[in-house]
Design goal:
The chain contains five helices and 13 strands. The N and C termini lie far apart (65 Å). The N terminus is likely disordered.
């Protein structure tokens, strides 16, 4: 049997190399420019708002012209678009609070230049008052993984930080992934604020 090795055409390689360089450079610029970094390092206190409670982000947004009922309707409309099926991720609902539990796929590790995607559970608690909401994004852990002797355990993002000179610093090949999931949550909150600021209110009874 003859075995043939096919080499990429030079023109294709010339086109491919600049694209890879752009991706590599843009990823490094993003990491270097992150306000979370201190001297190029990501500390656990920069990553978490409250590391003891696993709160990554907790922010209040003000909407003076909107009452609580309208804010709840608009948040449900946003969530239905953002997550496609609101019923699947809505785990708790009261008169002044919604709790969503969903999977974020922004987190990754790096191994020999390749990215390995690590899906992560996020619990989003949204509290309502007339004219404002408070959003708290919790690190709810990974999917259960096999452990020693067939046991299972939940890993939190804090487990990817190691002590270095008295500080808990992100492990090198997880740092960019931690920055990515943090930015993903900021983008989520920004998207929610933009949606609430719009004039559209969905009728969920349609």
């Amino acid at each position: 049997m003859n075995v043939y090795l096919v080499k990429p055409k030079p023109n294709k390689m010339k086109k491919l190399i600049p694209c890879l360089l752009i991706i590599f450079i843009s990823n490094n610029i993003f990491a270097q420019d992150s306000p979370l970094l201190i001297e190029g390092k990501l500390t656990i206190d920069s990553f978490y708002k409250d590391k003891g409670a696993f709160i990554i982000i907790s922010e209040v947004a003000q909407f003076d012209s909107l009452n609580k009922a309208t804010l709840i309707k608009k948040v449900k409309n946003w969530a239905s678009i953002q997550f496609v099926n609101l019923k699947e991720i809505l785990v708790s609902e009261t008169d002044d609070q919604l709790v969503l539990n969903y999977i974020d796929n922004s987190f990754f590790s790096k191994s020999f230049g390749s990215r390995i995607q690590l899906n992560w559970y996020i619990r989003l608690v949204i509290q309502f008052k007339d004219g404002k909401i408070k959003c708290s994004y919790f690190d709810d852990g990974n999917a259960l993984t096999s452990g020693v002797m067939g046991s299972t355990r939940t890993i939190h993002l804090k487990d990817y930080f190691k002590e270095d000179d008295g500080k808990m610093i992100a492990v090198k090949h997880f740092k960019d992934g931690l920055l990515a999931i943090h930015q993903s949550l900021i983008n989520s909150f920004d998207s929610l604020k933009k949606s609430l600021a719009s004039d559209t209110v969905a009728d969920n009874n349609w």
